[in-house]
Design brief:
- The protein is α/β, with parallel strands linked by helices.
- The protein has 3 domains: 4-91, Orthogonal Bundle (Fumarate Reductase Iron-sulfur Protein, Chain B, domain 2), CATH 1.10.1060; 101-254, Rossmann fold, CATH 3.40.50; 267-365, no CATH class.
- It is 49% helix and 8% strand.
- The strands form 2 sheets. The chain has a 4-stranded parallel sheet with strand order 2-1-3-4. It has a 4-stranded parallel sheet with strand order 6-5-7-8.
- α10 (163-175) packs across α20 and α16 (283-292) runs parallel beside α20 (357-365).
- It is globular.
């Protein structure tokens, strides 16, 4: 029985677009290299060391989807990588013990950092409540209802580097008069990290809790800034009569026009891979930038290196990718506008300046950029 990857003719159309190959120049990291190994799997399985190397290679990938996008043989490479990751972890769990801490954190406290679930609201609430009066009343408790549920995700709940984005998000929700709640301590991880390693059962357990909370709050919409969370909310949470939206979609729908952003810096727009390539959300971020009246340059639609669990499985490779991207795009004197907390983390870690689109909205709404 043939597999979808058997259609690959090794033409190499994917190789020049692969961020890992671009960064390190070694064929085994490329989609073509991995598919070749899959096609000769019978021979590989007779060589335990080579089979082990292949299983690790599956996690040396950002799952950015660029290879699927350009494949001339129409191989669904993203699906192949997901399936093969699940198979690899099932076959040789001892080789992936570096994922155990993540799995245990998600199983025990439902977040990637192993922190108390009660802290999901405390970190940002303590910081922002003085700026946004009444914000504490926006935190979900059983019995509260709202038109819109805000799903922050683990990164935005726990990372101080995301505080400016959160401040801008809540400021703009108040600005447009939205009836909203934030899930707070009742929010589980969306399940995306487990999905990326092929643990569908574990991901499903996290999703079911989120689904029950969102529906209990009688929300008509759930809004998130995180493309990975949105993949899970839109495609896998099985929400009934609830529309899952990225925050750029939400504000683009909500705001027919915006104040003009007082631009004082050179801006470039970076498309998050999961947002534009996997979810197909390309128009709304640019629509908001147009409404804001900003001048910006389009960056190549390439990966920052932060996706696919690569930041955890091989941080060295992840660093090489963002550094190569920053150098290629000449970002030294540029503020990179994006719409993804993971991309933001990558850009900040490589000492690049960055702003989320919602920060531009909030700056414009209060009378200009600071």
């Amino acid at each position: 029985m043939s597999s979808s990857y058997d259609k690959c003719v090794r033409c190499g159309s994917c190789v020049k677009f692969c961020p890992l190959f671009d960064a390190v120049g070694e064929e085994q990291f490329s989609p073509r290299g991995k598919i070749y190994l899959l096609q000769i799997m019978d021979q590989i399985e007779d060589d335990p060391e080579l089979a082990k190397e292949f299983r690790q290679l599956l996690f040396q990938c950002t799952l950015c989807g660029r290879c699927s996008e350009v494949c001339s043989s129409d191989v669904d490479l993203l699906k192949v990588w997901h399936e093969q990751r699940a198979k690899a972890v099932e076959m040789a769990p001892e080789e992936f013990d570096y994922l155990d801490a993540l799995r245990n954190s998600l199983a025990n406290v439902a977040n990637i950092y192993g922190l108390d679930p009660e802290d999901r609201a405390i970190y940002w609430l303590d910081e922002l409540e003085d700026d946004i009066p009444g914000l504490g009343d926006r935190v979900y408790e059983k019995g509260k209802t709202a038109d819109t549920m805000v799903f922050l995700g683990c990164l935005m709940s726990f990372r101080g580097s995301q505080m400016d984005v959160l401040r801008s998000l809540f400021t703009m929700l108040e600005e447009v008069g939205e009836d909203y709640l934030v899930m707070g301590a009742e929010e589980n991880c969306c399940g995306h990290p487990l999905y990326l390693m092929g643990d569908e059962k574990g991901a499903a357990e996290l999703r079911q809790h989120n689904k029950s909370v969102i529906e209990d709050a009688q929300a008509k919409k759930v809004v998130t800034c995180c493309p990975g969370c949105l993949i899970q909310l839109r495609e896998y949470h099985n929400l009934e009569k609830v529309e899952a939206l990225h925050h750029t979609q939400f504000f683009d729908q909500k705001m027919a026009s915006t104040p003009i952003y007082e631009q004082t810096e050179e801006l470039a727009y970076h498309d998050p891979c999961e947002l534009h390539r996997i979810l197909g959300i390309k128009t709304e971020p640019r629509s908001l930038l147009k409404k804001l009246g900003v001048k910006y340059r389009e960056m190549e639609a390439s990966c920052c290196g932060g996706g696919g669990l690569l930041r955890m499985t091989d941080p060295g490779l992840s660093d090489i990718i963002i550094q190569a991207r920053a150098a290629k795009e000449k970002l030294k004197d540029t503020v990179v506008v994006t719409a993804c907390p993971s991309c933001r983390e990558q850009l900040l870690a490589s000492e690049n300046r960055t702003k989320d689109i919602v920060e531009l909205l909030a700056d414009a709404s209060k009378g200009g950029a600071e």
